[in-house]
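Usage

Read records sequentially. Each one opens with the input sequence:
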Amino acid sequence: MTEKERFIKALRREPLTGHVPTFELVFFLTLEALGRIAPEQQHFYQWSQMSDSEREAHFDYIAETYVQVARKYHHSAIFVQANPGDFDSVVRTIELIREKSGDEFFIMCHGDPTFEIPNGDNMLEFTARMYEEPEALKREAQNRLEGSLRFAENMAKHPGLLDGFALCSDYCFNINPFFSPDMFSEFVAPYLSGVLKEYRDMGYYSIKHTDGNIMPIIDQIADCKPDALHSLDPQGGVSLAEVKRLYGNRLCLIGNVNCGLLQTGTDEECAADVRRALREGMPGYGYIFSTSNCVYTGLSLERYEMMNNIWWNEGVYAPGPDPEI
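and closes with the structure output:
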């Protein structure tokens, strides 16, 4: 099987042999790992002045970087963040990834119209609007949903390029969600459910990402029917074993290796946490191995490679009867 096929089987919670699939939502350490600038860290202030050949060289560099990372660390999927992020740039970047790798990898891009935790500049205003202008806010949520669907419909005109969407609006702090369960059911869940249904009807897979303590709203997220849930944040008190027990028959689960521990813990603590995630996530299938966020700037490449090596040596399904959850 290709890595893409393995990834899809995990999303479908189907039995696998060999390595449990792995990937990272973002991998920022490309300069140290490959001598290449990460696609997400490139800024082109003179984009409008570039020639067509300069732009094409830029797209090729980004595509090549994504493919090199995936092959070096045996990732099964690539989350594309084109730079710049307009529709044509996304398409061209994915086209080049496909030219370089064929159908080797599962490819996804951004696709989340739902409201996330507002930033510090507009948090008070947004909070007030939920109470004072709820209908206007819902119209905005619907407009955002329709914009995401237009993007997906246009992407569907390029068959074979995109496999799915990563929905990356963050809802939660480490302590609790920003939205109370009632607010989530009013301002987020209907639009999350709506966009996921439409993606599914178009033939796309969907991975819902949110950090933090999702437990007060996880029922609602699961009811919206994403194919997978990322990142199962241990720093937000999320237990992979418990989520697996409650939702492992409904959702593929992704992540849970403690990013904070990878950065600040001892080698022994980090190795133990990697093995814990494998031990808790792999039984019953429907698990994709990754950190609990991403491989971010400041995280030690040596630590990520230690994590990746443990996965390579120990994250393997043996042939035989299906393991039980």
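Summary fields computed downstream for this record:
- The first helix runs from residue 3 to 11.
- The radius of gyration is 19 Å.
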